[in-house]
Amino acid sequence: MAVKVLIPTPLQKYTQEQATVECQGTNVSELIESLESNCPGIKQRLCDEQGKPRRFLNLYVNGEDIRLLENTETKLNDGDEVSIVTAVAGG
């Protein structure tokens, strides 16, 4: 099952400067593991020591925040789109 992952510019150095990559996974957790297999080093930037998404990152499945769904257990289907969005602060 192919899932399209949108990669923010600061993380594209792990994806050979690609803004989108396709990975496999039946849920977000498996997708992160697949992403790490294809783009070594990216998981450390996405997840903390417990394997949970870092607080300054937001993950969306088809525009829905995974924190409002089932977090990393959010189910994925073929053709879904996962967006990784870094938090932006300003003043």
Automatic annotation (TrEMBL):
UniProt cross-references to InterPro entries, sorted A to Z: Beta-grasp_dom_sf (IPR012675), Mopterin_synth/thiamin_S_b (IPR016155), Sulfur_Carrier/Prot_Modifier (IPR052045), ThiS/MoaD-like (IPR003749)
A family per Pfam: ThiS
Name under which the protein is recorded: Molybdopterin synthase subunit MoaD
Signal peptide: none
Organism listed in the record: Moorena producens 3L
Bilayer-crossing regions: none
